[in-house]
Fold:
Amino acid sequence: MELSAIRELIRLSSKKIVLLVLDGLGGLPIKPNSQTELEAANTPVMDKLAAEGVLGLSTPIAPGVTPGSGPAHLALFGYDPLKFIVGRGVLEATGIGIKIAKGDIAARGNFCTIDAAGLITDRRAGRISSDLAEPIVDRLNSIAIAGFQVEVRHVREYRFAAVLRGSSYRPELEDTDPQHIGLAPLKVQAKEPAAEETAQIFNKWIEGTRRILSNEKLANGLTLRGFSTDPQLPQYENTFGLKAACIAVYPMYRGVSKLVGMDIINFTGEQPQDEFAAASSEWGSYDFFFIHIKRTDSKGEDGDFEGKVAVIEGVDQAIPMLLDLSPDVLLITGDHSTPARMRQHSWHPVPLLLWAPETARADEEKVFGETACRRGGLGSIPATSILPLLLAHSARLGKFGA
Structure:
């Protein structure tokens, strides 16, 4: 449904919505005819919510299409990710508080390890700690290119953001990460002639980094990807009538939330309990809470089936903290699937659980898992339909037509 049509239907309501996203929640059995990570997890609280609510599956982009985290979250937030294109660079930069103006170009940077032949031996520089990476990022800010400014800011561990400041630079640039070890970092290539100048500037900057990184043991190279500028997205309060808050540990998810106009709630700690406590502290100030759990995805990418199970169980144990706040509508889902069996994002539909005691039609399913979700009352829906459902169940959507 077009955003302009939804905007016309918006009604005021005092009901509270929680969108709880376990990143990469969807999974696969390790062996045929066994359970997925979610099904193997002991989740009595989510199972009770499933019995009282309604289940389904969502498709983030389109059937068979494996989503990145940025477009997958945009879909959850109600934006068509095929229409609203947002690059990883602007998400990372915005997530750590760098303001990106139209014409500035942001890139997500990774430190990497290269050998004497200039070939990548580790795409993440041994996942060096933030304590080791921050001083290196500081030194990158000393690179001077006549007439140009590149701001570099540390994000987390081996990741950083690099922003070329200007009013007319173009983001149509190819990534420099070849995505495989044993290959050299690529040069920045323009996808369109108009971006050629921007590509040349970034290549000069990369050349300047080589002297600074040459004596590093692990972070002796870098790659850039996700070149992008401010997408100027429609803002959440104007579009959906929601005063919205984001509670997330990782900067990228704060970035995509900020781009759509959510307020970012600062808190200490990285456990689900810490995030739910942050929601409690701000409960009276917002209509909509997006709460993001990262480690389900991390464990999936590591191929750690049992570790992913444990993260899901930890979230389940903490959910009573959310229920104590008496949300009117709670939806639990993932942005995409990250099966430990595959060690990467996948195209598989994502399980979702909608709990809205006053308005949800309960189905016959009693547990939260992929098999039950496939049989659930919501059926299989596009992820862009989730936000309208949340609005409807919180009495925020009026009637369409006479």
Q: What stands out?
A: The longest helix spans residues 305-323. The longest strand covers residues 105-114. The two ends are 18 Å apart (CA to CA). The mean pLDDT is 95.
